[in-house]
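FORM 12-B: Structure-to-Sequence Request
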């Protein structure tokens, strides 16, 4: 109920904060100059990540597209155990998907790790394609799960893919080219799929309900070797 200087502090907050910092002693910031320092240009692939809600929506949309494509290729589809209850366009992502992974004879902890792979296509009780959708600044988490899959089941004949926007192509392929991933063969087995190509493919196959070969993904996938040859 008493008068105060709220408006004054709101209008002059930046200057007051600088004054306070200078009064704290020699470690304080120097007085501001009249001209602000030039801002560093942000490259397209270094753009700040989208808000979490937008990231989740984009991630769910890509997973939904992969689920629908999996059905068209007559595959059973596994959706990551931590994503199956996520809702996209009014439906749970895990609806009409497998509730359990086939028994691969793995230890419990290993099975839990593989169950976190975003999307797995399965035919005749065996995984034929494992797909990670990357939406954040870090790409290595999905690739590490694929490394686990290759290390734990080296004889498994499964194709590996990373789905990400075209703007992040260089970052994805740079990660695949790391010595660690080359050493275990992930660089040769894992391919990159631009999100935009994924949606375009789904649109082209919109009239199909089944009967498409799962290798259709290879038509839109980019390997590390292919990228190097075209560069």
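FORM 12-B RESPONSE
SEQUENCE OUT:
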């Amino acid at each position: 109920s008493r008068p105060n200087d709220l408006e004054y502090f709101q209008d002059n907050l930046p200057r007051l904060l600088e004054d306070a910092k200078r009064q704290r002693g020699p470690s304080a910031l120097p007085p501001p100059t009249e001209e602000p320092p030039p801002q560093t240009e942000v490259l397209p692939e270094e753009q700040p990540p989208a808000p979490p809600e937008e990231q989740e929506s984009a991630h769910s949309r890509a997973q939904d597209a992969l689920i629908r494509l999996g059905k068209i290729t007559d595959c059973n589809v596994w959706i990551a155990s931590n994503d199956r209850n996520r809702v996209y366009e009014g439906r749970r992502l895990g609806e009409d998907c497998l509730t359990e992974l086939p028994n691969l004879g793995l230890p419990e902890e290993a099975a839990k790790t593989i169950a976190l792979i975003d999307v797995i296509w399965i035919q005749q009780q065996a995984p034929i394609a494992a797909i990670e959708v990357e939406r954040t600044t870090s790409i290595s988490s999905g690739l590490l799960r694929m490394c686990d899959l290759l290390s734990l089941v080296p004889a498994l004949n499964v194709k590996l893919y990373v789905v990400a926007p075209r703007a992040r192509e260089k970052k994805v392929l740079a990660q695949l080219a790391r010595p660690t991933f080359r050493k275990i063969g992930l660089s040769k087995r894992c391919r990159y799929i631009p999100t935009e190509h994924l949606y375009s493919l789904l649109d082209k196959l919109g009239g199909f309900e089944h009967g498409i070969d799962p290798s259709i993904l290879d038509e839109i996938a980019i390997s590390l070797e292919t990228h190097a040859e075209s560069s």
